[in-house]
Amino acid sequence: QGRMWAYAVGFTVLPHVGGFLGWFINRKEITGWYEKLKKPSWCPSRKMFPVAWTVLYTGMGYASYLIWNDLGGCSSKALIPLGLYGAQLALNWAWPPFFFGARNLKMALIDILLLDCLAIGTLCSWYRINKIATLLLVPYLGWLAMATCLTIRIWKDNPEQKPGKSE
């Protein structure tokens, strides 16, 4: 019981690791290339994204701890619920390198559509296990819905440049 707080902290911090790395690696593209893209009027301010992701990653990380704890750790019962969570987290972390790093809007769109499916699957698999964990994912799904719509609009409104063309 004494080490449970360390597990809670570890699970809560884990999503932030990939989020921070994605920001750190792509930070120059965020302030340069991204600013030049055509975006819809409802696009959140660039300053809103780190605040939102801090809250969302904290909630989903703690929720994953609740699921892990309720299922007795890394048991066979945890394979699907935590496997779905891990897969959606990997796609979440893959989106910034596709979007900002490679500037590949089509791959970013495919990634976020698959991410949406896995996040919904995660939510559904968690529902019977822990209602609080499930509720902690709801804001994340809401933000993903907005991010998906934003990705679609940016992809449609900013035709990708052909290789060799200057920006």
TrEMBL record:
<comment type="similarity">
    <text>Belongs to the TspO/BZRP family.</text>
</comment>
<dbReference type="InterPro" id="IPR038330">
    <property type="entry name" value="TspO/MBR-related_sf"/>
</dbReference>
<dbReference type="GO" id="GO:0005741">
    <property type="term" value="C:mitochondrial outer membrane"/>
</dbReference>
<dbReference type="InterPro" id="IPR004307">
    <property type="entry name" value="TspO_MBR"/>
</dbReference>
<keyword id="KW-0812">Transmembrane</keyword>
<feature type="transmembrane region" description="Helical">
    <location>
        <begin position="47"/>
        <end position="66"/>
    </location>
</feature>
<keyword id="KW-1133">Transmembrane helix</keyword>
<feature type="transmembrane region" description="Helical">
    <location>
        <begin position="135"/>
        <end position="155"/>
    </location>
</feature>
<feature type="transmembrane region" description="Helical">
    <location>
        <begin position="107"/>
        <end position="129"/>
    </location>
</feature>
<protein>
    <submittedName>
        <fullName>TSPO protein</fullName>
    </submittedName>
</protein>
<dbReference type="Pfam" id="PF03073">
    <property type="entry name" value="TspO_MBR"/>
</dbReference>
<feature type="transmembrane region" description="Helical">
    <location>
        <begin position="78"/>
        <end position="95"/>
    </location>
</feature>
<keyword id="KW-0472">Membrane</keyword>
<feature type="transmembrane region" description="Helical">
    <location>
        <begin position="6"/>
        <end position="26"/>
    </location>
</feature>
